[in-house]
Amino acid sequence: MMSKEKVSSSISSSSIVKHTLENTPVCTCGSPASLRTSNTRRNPGRAFFGCSNYNMKGLPHCNFFKWADRGQEREQELHKIETDLLRKKDELQKTQEEFQKTREELRKLEEEVRKTMEEVRHWMEEVRKREGKIVKMELEVRRQRTHLRICWAILILLYLLYVRS
């Protein structure tokens, strides 16, 4: 069994150890848990808390077990989640800003289209007025032609009458 002093002196620079030694959990049997190091293939050198009475001859012990770095893993997970949330919040804000810019551009374009439509309406009104004037002038020209033809026909008839008499 490795004592707290040996563990803390061998890896005292580790923030995990500092944090865990300050926050030593209590076993389910009521005694403070002791910090140990795993020697398994799966977790070599990983610190954990176990019952302080484990492997003590004749003393009853519980099956208390807790990874010492578990809190730090959660902190790292939470930090990662927080970082992701902040990144997504920034992305959302940028997207909102882009949306706002696009909305403003659309409003400007809409105003330009509205002005252009007003100009087109005005021009169309002018075209209708001029078209009306042209139609009136054409009617007047037709009437005058008709009058001229009638006058010519009368003149020709009068000439023919004069020539025969």
TrEMBL record:
Residues 78-126 form a coiled coil. Keywords: Coiled coil, Membrane, Metal-binding, Transmembrane, Transmembrane helix, Zinc, Zinc-finger. One of its GO terms (molecular function) is zinc ion binding. It comes from the Eukaryota. Residues 27-71 form the GRF-type domain. The chain crosses the membrane at residues 146-163. This is GRF-type domain-containing protein. It comes from Carya illinoinensis. The lineage of its organism: Eukaryota, Viridiplantae, Streptophyta, Embryophyta, Tracheophyta.
